[in-house]
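Spend some time on the protein that follows and explain the fold to me:
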Amino acid sequence: MGAGSPGDRSCAKEPTTLFSDGPCLDIYVSSPRRSRDVIEHFLHAYVDVSASDDRGDEELMMVPVGYGGPLRALGRAVEWDWQPVGRLSEIIDLGLAQPPRAFAVYLEPNDRSLCGTVLAFTRDGRLILGLSVPEPTESREERERTESLLLELMAHARVGVGVIAVATPPPLDGSEFEEWVRNPDRYLVLRVITRNPEP
C-alpha cells in the first residue's frame, strides 16, 4: 500500500512502515455499501481509532471532482486535489459526501501483528476496505492466516469476493477492482477468493 508525498505535501501514513520492517501484502474488498455503518463496523473491528484520530497536518490526495479520465494520469498530466484534514471524523464525512470523492487514507491497526489498515472511497461510489499483513513465509500457517483474514474481512463487509495483492495501493475506481478480479495475472494480485456473501 502506499501514497506518495510529492514535495512538502503531507499525505496518509504508509502502513507497511508502521509495525513491520519486512514486505507486506494487501488484502482488499470492495463494497457497494458506502455508509457510515459499514465504516464504523470496520473501524471497530480493525482500527486503533484513538491513535488514528488526530491527523496532524495531513492532506488527502483526492481525485479532482468530475474527473473521469485514467487514474494513472493523476500526478502527471492532471493534478491531484489536496484537502487538509484534522480528524478522522472529517475524513469519514468527506468520504460520505456527494458527489462521491475518491481518495484513500491509511490508519493504524488495533492488531499490532498487522502492518496497517486502509479505508478508500472510489469515484463511482464504492467503499474499499483493506488490511496490510506481513508477507507470509513458506509457513502454511501464515498463508492460511492471511486467507482467513481476507475471509473475515469479506464477512464484515458482506461481500462475495476479495483479493490478496503485493504492496498495491487501493483502487480508486470500482471498475479497477473488478479488473483485478477478472485478470489477476495482469496485476500484482496473488489470489482472488470468492464466497457466498451474507444477506
